[in-house]
Design goal:
heterodimer, A: 238 residues, 4-stranded antiparallel β-sheet, 3-stranded antiparallel β-sheet, B: 362 residues
């Protein structure tokens, strides 16, 4: 290969080494958080004929399914402005199209597992009954990761993750409109199951989802990205 | 017989192909002149010209693999289309095959396969480029190597749950540009330039705090300026160091300048960064949508850039129709709208016909 091919090969090698170096750096230091989640928070998709990889999909507590979710009532105009949304114009008919066309912004979100906010939301919406949905809830957002960690210090219950925030106009029952924020998704939304843990989950893929969670997953969030550390079966699945 | 032009300068492949076409045209014209009795070459003259052309075409064919006949030219066109379609199909096959097997491999094996395939394909590109002057196979393999490299970094991101970053576009762009300049592959040049434009637009969006993956497409205003820079880049030594590369720089630059304009003009509210009042932006993009392609057509005719003239004309027609729809669709009955469009098309034919006659007279 002449110089032309070597340079391209060098780009491939350097990129791969940089990516792997990033992985080592991510996993090297003190973890950002360690959470033990279950099938409620990390769902297992059915097997796909064209894709043999296995990834668990992160499920956030009913954020999208319920209109005007009280669990995100903290995401008000002030929080939107702190994240960088321009909310300076009055919320009237003239400015409504502009607000509706506001593009999403990058920020950080705090995901709390089985915390007070989830307990409160469950009480208000399901009358206290456990409907089997995710206990992982977005409880805060902001551009300063360190400030968020200071507000949510429990690293075994709360994790701070890169997220996308959107502005939306909520119409209340009395017709008044207010600006709200929402976290439609965090990153990443899928966690790859390493080959070593596939054997635990593979038999469950073809079976129907049970009433309760069938497995527990220990997820470690490193300096930047998460990974699955451990997978174990629960209850009757053992 | 050496493959040089009249001044003794070494020919490029494009010039060699043009010379071969010129020889074919000359032979056809001599036959016509002989049939009409205008010119009759003696046996000696005919034999000398014929021998000269045979040697010339032989030398051009040996060195550049030029098409010696119309049939060969048509075959070459077919090979170009087939190589593009083949490269796309092979790339899709490669990606889908990896998705089919990667769950069966351990992490180390996944990483080795992902990094190894583009390297193997690079070796194959080199081998093909050494054996074949037309580079059809090399361009297919280069595109496949590019797809393998995109898969490589994309799948690494998925395996290690990495949050997406716009910086991934940097190695992809560098890889495509390296192959383009290394082997003279125009398709890879276009891909490399487009990826570089995407990277800069995404970085700008990320810098302003926007969700870059969406804003890269939904906030295209910076592309107008960046596209202008790419177009200007066609005049640099970097662009002209390879045969027909300035064309690609011009086309990519033009696409980046012109394509955002219809979206910004019709849906200013949705696609703009709003650095100016909306009414000003609306008027600005309406004007740019008509003036920039006209300017490009004028420059293209003067400078002899047929690809610029064709692209700008196509854009002007699409933009004019888009604006007619934007202005009048809601205001008038449908039949009148389409009659008006037809009338505008006829007016354009009359106008262009007059311009053509004037150019003919000049």
């Amino acid at each position: 290969m002449k110089g032309r091919g070597w340079i391209a090969a060098g780009i491939v090698l350097v990129s791969n080494l940089a990516a792997l170096g990033g992985v080592a750096w991510n996993r090297g230091g003190e973890p950002e958080a360690v959470l033990e989640l279950t099938e409620r928070e990390l769902s297992l998709p059915p097997p796909a004929a064209e894709n043999t990889a296995m990834a668990l999909r992160l499920q956030l507590w009913n954020v999208l399914r319920r209109p005007s979710p009280p669990e995100q009532s903290w995401f008000d105009r002030a929080k939107l402005e702190a994240i960088g949304f321009d909310c300076s114009r009055p919320l009237d008919e003239a400015n409504l199209p502009r607000y509706r066309a506001t593009p999403p912004r990058r920020t950080y979100a705090v995901l709390e597992y089985s915390g007070q906010a989830w307990e409160g939301g469950r009480q208000s919406l399901a009358g206290g009954a456990d409907d089997g949905s995710s206990r992982l809830m977005v409880v805060d957002a902001g551009n300063d990761r360190a400030a968020l960690r200071a507000r949510w210090p429990d690293r075994h219950r709360a994790v701070i993750v890169p997220a996308v925030a959107v502005l939306w106009v909520e119409q209340k029952p009395d017709g008044t409109k207010v600006l709200r924020g929402r976290i439609p998704f965090v990153q990443p939304m899928e966690l790859n199951v390493p080959h070593a843990h596939r054997a635990v989950l593979a038999p469950l893929q073809a079976r129907a989802v049970a009433a309760g969670p069938r497995y527990r997953v220990k997820v470690v969030w490193g300096r930047r990205d998460p990974w699955i550390e451990e997978v174990s079966l629960l209850g009757n699945e053992r | 017989m050496t493959a040089t032009d009249d001044a003794g300068k070494a020919l490029t492949r494009q010039e060699a192909q043009a010379r071969a076409a010129q020889v074919r045209a000359f032979e056809r014209e001599v036959r016509e002149l002989e049939q009409d009795g205008v010119l009759v070459l003696g046996p000696d003259q005919r034999s000398r010209v014929s021998r000269y052309h045979d040697e010339l075409l032989g030398a051009l064919s040996d060195r550049f693999d030029v098409d010696r006949s119309e049939g060969q030219r048509q075959m070459s066109l077919g090979m170009r289309i087939a190589s593009l379609l083949g490269a796309l199909a092979l790339s899709a096959g490669l990606v889908l095959f990896f998705y089919r097997i990667w769950g069966l491999l351990g992490t180390a094996a996944q990483v080795a396969v992902l990094a190894g395939v583009p390297l193997l394909l690079l070796a194959a590109v080199e081998l093909a480029a050494r054996r074949e002057k037309t580079l059809y196979l090399a361009s297919v393999l280069a595109l496949l190597a590019g797809a393998a490299f995109v898969l490589d970094l994309g799948a690494l991101g998925a395996i290690f749950n990495m949050a997406p970053s716009p910086w991934v576009l940097l190695p992809w762009s560098a890889f495509a540009l390296t192959l383009a300049y290394g082997y003279g592959l125009r398709l890879m040049l276009a891909a490399g330039l487009l990826l570089a434009l995407g990277l800069l637009n995404a970085l700008l969006a990320a810098w302003t705090g926007l969700e870059w993956a969406e804003a890269m497409v939904a906030r295209p205003e910076p592309l107008i300026l960046l596209g202008g820079l790419v177009f200007a880049g066609s005049f640099t030594r970097l662009a002209s160091s390879r045969e027909r590369f300035p064309e690609v720089w011009r086309l990519v630059g033009m696409a980046a300048v012109l394509l955002p304009i219809p979206f910004l003009s019709v849906w200013t509210l949705v696609f703009s960064y709003h650095l100016l009042p909306e009414t000003v932006l609306h008027a600005l993009y309406d004007s740019c949508g008509f003036l920039l392609p006209v300017l490009a057509i004028w420059a293209g005719i003067r400078r002899g850039w047929p690809e610029v003239v064709r692209a700008a004309t196509g854009f002007l027609v699409v933009f004019a129709y888009a604006k007619c729809f934007d202005w009048w669709w809601e205001l008038m009955p449908r039949y009148l709208f389409f009659l008006l469009l037809g009338g505008l098309a006829i007016a354009a034919i009359v106008l262009l016909g007059r311009l053509r006659r004037r150019m003919k007279a000049a």
